[in-house]
């Protein structure tokens, strides 16, 4: 057993972790180390990664900014150090992505990452605020793949309609409306992309009806919760998707995605180098994300940045729920 596995076992024994218990704040040490190791790995591999690798870093930065309490909090030195680390990684990333047109790297990095659109005050909802509901929509894998690829086009519509300085109406094409905004039907990455596009529209200051946003986000995360909770085998088979589900629904404050057993699964799956594989099963690997790079160590840039983002979410939750007592 490695020292990392021994540490996790001891944490489990000392803190008597149960799925329905609140996270013990002492676990934050392991979470913090996980974030820092992931950031180190991301920075070391920026030159051969896709631009999406910076999104998780942007989320980590946002979670740290919300955790930081101007020096009055016991964890502020750690929060500030990680926040500054994110700034350094993003500054280095700008050398690779800000002027590269391939895969839309330049406009994605400038408008979705570097402008710090993700920072907000995290407001966590009560546990079990989401119902357990299976999505009745059955969509073929071919259609889902098409719709995933189409998401960049619809995100670009949002970027073109906004300037990040003031709130604006954001015109939506009929095809994007029918594909991503009209309803919460779907599964897999198609469903998380629906959520992400809504979140981008809000973060970029599109004027959105509050009732529509809440209803759509709640319904999407209700279906995602079912998939993440009951398809336990797919948590290993599609670990990358599992992390994306936690990060995006967790960002909306749904504590149904803040679970001790999930946290320890994530910490245990992180390799000593700080990276994450896109799936955890000991079978021949296959790339499950179109915008991902699979490295020779078996890790994925996309999964690693999601892992960093999820650990940042848990860090923020532990501080605000355990230390501050929200």
TrEMBL record:
It comes from the Eukaryota. InterPro entries: DUF4735. The keyword Signal applies. Residues 1-19 form the signal peptide. Keywords: Signal. One of its GO terms (cellular component) is cytosol. The keyword Signal applies. PANTHER family: UPF0764 PROTEIN C16ORF89 (PTHR33539). This is ADP-ribosyl cyclase/cyclic ADP-ribose hydrolase.
